[in-house]
Write a structure and sequence with these properties.
Elements: E1 4-6, H1 8-21, H2 26-31, H3 33-38, H4 44-59, E2 62-64, H5 65-76, H6 81-99, H7 102-110, H8 113-130, E3 135-139, E4 142-147, H9 163-177, E5 183-187, E6 196-201
Antiparallel strand pairs: 1-2, 3-4, 4-6, 5-6
Helix pairs in contact: 1-4, 1-5, 1-6, 6-9, 7-8, 8-9
Length: about 210
């Protein structure tokens, strides 16, 4: 098992909990202690951990794998786990995208596909290694994202926790190349298939 993961992984999971648990009426969140006690995302513990993971991200520090996978299990026990895993994936993808240098993001957004897509592919391959702890392979007309040790794979039954990486992958494709609507989860560690893998169509041009 991997010993550590990128700090943005657990950070995005907790950010999703905080976002979903925060009521639209901020007065309730501030003044009704009973509400704060019932909603994990409003607790001081979650805020403290979010600050810790944010600082770790800035310093380039890793987080223990078991700690991150524990958050995946915690989310998997909630009735709104599907929404949480999906939201966390989008948060992760957007945070990663924002960490890319602005000039490079602009180039990938405005240059012709035959220039932008090789740049985006290289970026995605780097993200797969540095943030997901996996690999991304370009095979024919598809991209294959493989993650051998997912922090959320055992968080919920029927591979529901894998929605975290699927959502992140789809969102990154949308942000980088305006694609990624169709992402298929083709294999899963929870199903004893060796590795969690997602496949998305990849065109060479716009």
């Amino acid at each position: 098992m991997a010993s550590t993961v990128h700090a943005r992984i657990p950070l995005s999971l907790l950010e999703a909990i905080r976002r979903i648990d925060t009521p639209e009426d901020q007065v309730d969140a501030e003044y009704v202690q009973e509400l704060r006690n019932k909603r994990l995302g409003l607790s001081d513990t979650v805020y403290t951990q979010i600050r810790r993971y944010s600082e770790a991200t800035k310093r380039g520090q890793k987080i223990p794998f078991a700690e991150a996978s524990g958050l995946g299990t915690l989310i998997g026990r909630r009735p709104d786990s599907d929404e949480l895993f999906s939201t966390a994936g989008k948060i992760l993808a957007r945070d990663i995208y924002d960490s890319i240098a602005t000039p490079k993001r602009r180039m990938m957004g405005f240059m012709p596909g035959f220039i932008a897509r090789p740049m985006a592919l290289k970026e995605l391959q780097s993200i797969a290694v540095n943030f997901f702890g996996g690999t991304l392979v370009h095979s024919g007309s598809f991209l294959q994202l493989q993650i051998p040790e997912s922090v959320t794979v055992n968080g919920a039954p029927k591979s529901a926790g894998c929605a975290f990486y699927e959502s992140a992958f789809r969102e990154l494709l949308q942000l980088l190349v305006k694609g990624g609507e169709q992402v298929d989860h083709v294999s899963c560690v929870q199903r004893n298939e060796g590795v969690c893998e997602w496949r998305a169509e990849w065109r060479t041009s716009h």
